Amino acid sequence: MIYSTFMQYDELAHHFGPSSKQALADLRRTDARIAEIWRMAQLAGGRGYDLVILSDHGMTPALSYRVQYGESLGTTVQQILDETRVMGGQAPRALASYAEDTEYADMGPEVVEAVAQLTPASFGVRNGIRRFRDWLRSRYGLREIIFPEKYRVDRTNDVVVTYSSCLALVYFAATERRLLLEQVLADARWARLYERLVAHPGIGLVATISSNGVNLAGKRGRALLRDGQVELVSGENPLEIFGAEPYVLRAVESLVRQPNAGDCVLFGAFDGYDIVSFDDQVGAHGSAGGDQVYPFIISPERLGLGAESLEDARDIHRTILARYAAANAAGAPASAANLTPVTSRAAV
Hints:
By secondary structure, the chain is of the alpha+beta class. It has three domains: about 10-55 and about 300-335, no CATH class; about 65-100 and about 150-295, no CATH class; about 105-140, no CATH class. About 35% of the residues lie in helices and about 15% in strands. It has eleven helices and 13 strands. An eight-stranded mixed β-sheet has the order 3-4-5-10-6-7-8-9, with helices on both faces. The longest helix is centred in the N-terminal third of the chain and has 23 residues, at about 20-45. The chain is flat.
């Protein structure tokens, strides 16, 4: 088996948009590269290569949380905690995904300001450069390039916030065990934070674990997700806009039930087209909503994948490799007759 990854589209779609000129131009380059690989495979006489092309996810157009609300998610959490003084003591402290006050955080605008200071004041050029500085500061800086997401759980902090794209995790670090929703609501500090996150316009869904299943909370309703089924608790189903297909429900439930998931799992708000990204991105994936939940796979027709249900990488691995294992088995069925047997000289 020969495996190759093409990562450029993902990066370009994150920073320029899934349908941007830059991202689509890279798709054309990738297509040409795949065509070259296919030609080479055809020339490898006797080896019988099959070509399978797949994506691990789709991409949804996004709006930056920081641009929309003027602060990072970590700052939002800390401000909510600052409002909750505990018996006259210190407010709980939040640890965000990366340093907010680093000297590099404002590097882009500072470079532009340095250029402005060296520019003659005549003809309004300096003022124009400074207007660009202000625009850059309000949009996308160099911070996340220099400081990529860090996944740290610091026990000296009461709350840990980490995120990637349109998915965020909030941990209550005072205990090593994951808190149930009932335990979150029993603590006035965490209950206030939970309700404020649910109500925030940039957050579309807050998911937690309870004794009854996965709790889903949104601005217009609450629901319980259990065994791939949604039971409405009040108002509207908060997951409806993100996708109500059975495979989406199973994926969301699996995500929230991961042992290392946060005490609160947050999805960026989704309006049916754009989703809020907690990173400075204009293309996002990691939660649900929009095209991010639509990956693809292209394979030879004789593999018969069209009749299979493929929901994750394990399904793909099991289904595809089973075809070639069947071709090697004694008394292989007719469905395996057209597949190249796996031998020491063959690669799939």
